[in-house]
Design brief:
Elements (H helix, E strand, L loop, with lengths): L2 H17 L2 E6 L4 H4 L4 E3 L1 H10 L4 E5 L2 H10 L4 E3 L15 H10 L4 E5 L4 H5 L3 E3 L4 H7 L4 E5 L2 H8 L5 E4 L5 H4 L3 H10 L4 E4 L5 H4 L4 E2 L2 H10 L4 E5 L4 H8 L4 E4 L14 H10 L8 H15 L3
Parallel strand pairs: 1-2, 1-3, 3-4, 5-6, 5-7, 7-8, 9-10, 9-11, 11-12
């Protein structure tokens, strides 16, 4: 796409957005050109909470399906659009309601904590949700000593470091963060010995052990702004580097090893956002009995933000 075509599409998106009373929410891992048209950027929970407090009729969620679902759960009166139907999350799909019910039956005294990176029907089967930023606080605050933690085994392992509770880990993972390996991280640290290494808690324990800080994407954004260090190695999906460099031009950011890409986060293009606004495509619909139960799990989580 040449610059003239790109500008034309962006202008039309802005026009339709104003005409239809819409806002565009964009996750930190999206393509640069999608980040550039955002009304609000952040991680999935930040954006869903923002959606619930924005006075608008339409939300265009540039992320993946579970994120758009969370926005709909918290804002049922609004039309929530996911520009690409195929923008799913492999990790979220690693846990199903049937399998979770089977595990719950084996451990009837356990409390189910589900990462916000789960589909709506799994949230509805959970007692409380958590984010990567508040997972430790959520688990520590639960009275039960037995926890079923879905779906990310790496985040669950990170939480286990801070509690003596019995955590039953679901065998799920984010392929982007799972793909980061200690050898590559060590090589990156060797190339940039004065840089701080910050990684996401979805990374493997062996990678986390090498980090100076373990942070959610929102935590990484804050760290980059507030830290005195001017060289930072980033251990998460490469899309966040664009935002970090744009907001902190006086600092230098490096991918911690080969840049890792989430394919689902990169399928959304400007043309998809334009069509979503034109045709109200694709609407997120959640059966009310699922939405209500999922909302309880999300609202329980918000007590620990």
């Amino acid at each position: 796409m040449n610059n003239t075509d790109k500008k034309s599409i962006i202008d039309e998106i802005k026009h339709l957005k104003n005409e239809k009373d819409a806002v565009i929410l964009v996750h930190n891992y999206q393509r640069p050109e999608i980040q550039d048209i955002a009304d609000y950027m952040g991680d999935s929970l930040d954006l869903s909470r923002k959606a619930a407090n924005i006075d608008c009729k339409i939300i265009v969620f540039c992320g993946v399906k579970f994120m758009a679902e969370s926005a709909k759960i918290l804002s049922p009166e609004k039309t929530v659009l996911l520009p690409r139907k195929d923008a799913g999350c492999p990790m979220a799909d690693m846990v199903t309601v049937a399998e979770l019910r089977e595990l719950k039956a084996k451990h009837p005294d356990a409390i189910v904590v589900s990462y916000v990176n789960t589909n709506a029907d799994v949230k509805a089967e959970s007692d409380v949700c958590c984010t990567s930023a508040n997972a430790v606080k959520v688990v520590q605050s639960i009275k039960s000593n037995k926890i079923i933690f879905t779906p990310d085994r790496n985040l669950g392992s990170w939480v286990q470091r801070f509690t003596d509770k019995d955590i039953i880990l679901w065998d799920g993972y984010c392929y982007v963060h799972q793909g980061m390996n200690p050898r590559s991280i060590k090589l990156a640290k060797g190339l940039h010995p004065n840089a701080k290494l910050i990684v996401h808690p979805e990374c493997r324990p062996q990678v986390i052990d090498l980090a100076d800080e373990v942070l959610s994407t929102s935590g990484m954004i804050r760290f980059a702004k507030e830290s005195a260090t001017n060289k930072i190695l980033i251990g998460t999906e490469e899309g966040i580097l664009y935002r970090l460099k744009r907001e902190n031009p006086d600092k230098t950011f490096y991918a911690a090893g080969p840049a890792r890409v989430c394919r689902s986060m990169k399928v959304t293009k400007l043309e998809d956002v334009l069509i979503a606004l034109k045709e109200k495509r694709y609407k997120i619909e959640i059966p009310e009995f699922i939405r209500e139960k999922a909302k309880k799990a999300l609202e329980e989580m918000l007590k620990y933000i």
